[in-house]
């Protein structure tokens, strides 16, 4: 379990929008903001620029996951199963789904964006398929979805 980056006592509930450290309270945020060093984010990747590609070749799962960002982690080999699913690749060729994913990814409040996206049947289908693959692990790969 993670601890607040400022006080190292509580579980963090918040993330600094400038430098992305995790903190637990308003008091910790006030202490942190005086020493905050903003992180420069790389430009975002647009999958439409590369047809139906989901990720650029030089981007790996490790690049997307930060050790301190995730409380419930899915093992890397199960995440890699997502990239091997023909059904997911086919779904990701849908421009409407890609727009929904970009909207969630770019939202300030991810929870609200996810709630809105989950009202779309296509997004629910995509989410359910992703969960099924990572929850089933090695059994998720069958001849029908490779």
Automatic annotation (TrEMBL):
Its main location: cytoplasm. Residues 4-36 form the HIT-type domain. It holds the Pfam family ZNHIT3_C. GO terms for cellular component: cytoplasm; nucleus; pre-snoRNP complex. It comes from the Eukaryota. GO terms for biological process: box C/D snoRNP assembly; maturation of LSU-rRNA from tricistronic rRNA transcript (SSU-rRNA, 5.8S rRNA, LSU-rRNA); snoRNA localization. Keywords: Cytoplasm, Metal-binding, Nucleus, Phosphoprotein, Zinc, Zinc-finger. InterPro entries: BCD1, Znf_HIT, ZNHIT3_C. One of its GO terms (molecular function) is zinc ion binding. It is found in: Cytoplasm; Nucleus. Thyroid receptor interacting proteins (TRIPs) specifically interact with the ligand binding domain of the thyroid receptor (TR). Requires the presence of thyroid hormone for its interaction. Interacts with NUFIP1. Interacts (via HIT-type zinc finger) with the RUVBL1/RUVBL2 complex in the presence of ADP. This is Zinc finger HIT domain-containing protein 3. It comes from Iconisemion striatum. The gene is ZNHIT3.
């Amino acid at each position: 379990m993670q601890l607040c980056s400022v006080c190292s006592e509580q579980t963090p509930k918040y993330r600094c929008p400038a430098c992305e450290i995790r903190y637990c309270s308003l008091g910790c945020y006030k202490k942190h903001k005086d020493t905050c060093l903003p992180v420069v984010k790389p430009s975002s990747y647009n999958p439409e620029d590369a047809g139906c590609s989901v990720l650029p070749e030089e981007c790996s799962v490790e690049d997307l996951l930060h050790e301190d960002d995730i409380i419930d982690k899915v093992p890397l080999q199960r995440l890699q199963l997502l990239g091997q699913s023909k059904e997911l690749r086919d779904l990701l060729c849908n421009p409407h789904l890609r727009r929904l994913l970009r909207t969630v990814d770019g939202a300030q409040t991810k929870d609200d964006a996810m709630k809105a996206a989950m009202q779309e049947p296509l997004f629910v289908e995509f989410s359910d398929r992703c969960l099924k693959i990572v929850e089933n692990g090695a059994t998720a790969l069958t001849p029908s979805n490779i």
